[in-house]
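Entry 14. Structure prediction run on the chain below.
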Amino acid sequence: MKRLSDLLETSRVAEESVQRSYALFRWAVAFILVMVLCIVALESWRLAQDYQNAYTAAANSATNLTRAAAQQAEGAILQVDTLLFGVRERMEGDGLEHLDIARLQRLFTGQVAATPQLHGLYVFDEHGHWVVSDKAPMPQEVNVTDREYFLYHQQHVDRGLHIGPVFVSRSTGDQVIPLSRRIDHPDGSFAGVFVGTIDIRYFEDYYANFRVDAKGAFVLALRDGSVLVKHPVLEGGVSNSLANGEVYRNRLPYGPEGVIQMVSVVDNQPRLYGYKALHDLPLVMEAGISTESIVQGWTHDLFKTVVIVLVMLLGMGVFSYFFLQQLRSKIVMAEALQVAHTAVQDMAMRDGLTGLGNRRLLDRHLDDEVARARRSGLPLSLIMLDLDFFKRFNDHYGHYAGDECLRRVASALQATLHRPGDLAVRYGGEELAVLIPDTDAVGATVLVEQILDAIRALAIAHADSPFTQVTASAGLFVSTAVLGELTAAAMIQGADAALYKAKQNGRDQWFRGLAVED
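Output returned:
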């Protein structure tokens, strides 16, 4: 019994070792996965923050560029308009028919020379004919009645500044922006137009001084969406109107200034735009930074981060692989040891001849079932069997035949049991036992009769038996465990006493012993 106890303890230790190894393996895998997820999550969060910061910085830059460009445009145009306003008042006071042409031409020439943005100054009468300009005498056939600014002032009594769309100057061939004011006769009727033009290259040169990316852009446009200046200058396949753009349709109606990421309607390039509507002039300024340049640095950082994280993960993966391989080897060895101990334990608990459990296994299970029956109050039954006149069988047929007889009887006995919890054992010699938990007297009676019938059905010849074949006697003991006195020893003693009574009554039969509650 001491050797069995040591074997059971060794088996328990081996099983605990396997469970600890599995637990360590699971914790190791979980730890590795958590570390990988933490690294990926932290780097993803950092990259997301850097991405947001890049766009925030770009938005600030776009806003500052827009405000600077808008301030420059407003200052340049208002400076020219101040000249237009003052000279127009003097001309209206003198009347166009009384102008000192030579003096005015000198004045215009000096003003154009002194004002960098000013391309030219022109006065046209009510019929669109040239009156005076800063240029050399213009051909008399020049007529501007087809120009947008002339038609505007002819049809509107508005005496304020009018900014027209870009056109090509007939005197110089340059693209210019016309700034004009209406000239009236003393009676308020239309007398002509005073025009100052700004060469668009003035704005382009100014925008070129900003350190914007290669795909950055500046656009100066009228409030109706007509583009006045775009930098860089793009040829073909581009739009000259912003009217259908996101800024004009959905932003300016709700606010004069802001930042928006969009695809430009001018050249179809994605940019982050700052936009601003000038307060005193019918103009809108837009400055855009290309999306590509915004994320260029972030993309480079993303590539480096991905490489570094992949190297880290690869290193962790290699380390984890070898670590888990070592741990797996330990688990395999522990499992093999457990299997070996289980096999040895099974051998110690099994009868080598019949394949049934042995007395040790019955003792172990009987103790457990008695304890369970006492807790639950469920019935517990035990059958003890003994082959009739088996010594005579061995003497007559030999021990080899006796062993074969025991094997066949054991197989028949096992075949009658259909529940996993039922246990059949070789108790010793030709004596067998069947432990049937959760079975009352009625069920146990049916089973014991089935067992005896199964043994008879083998029809094993026994010449020295009065029954002429191998038979068995059985003792049945049933207890509902309603009393606390139920023990494993009491169960065995009760079944043995019943078996003895069956033998006394003539064998080849069964007898039920008194149950505890009886």
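Residues 2-94 form the longest helix (93 residues).
Filed with the rest of this week's runs.
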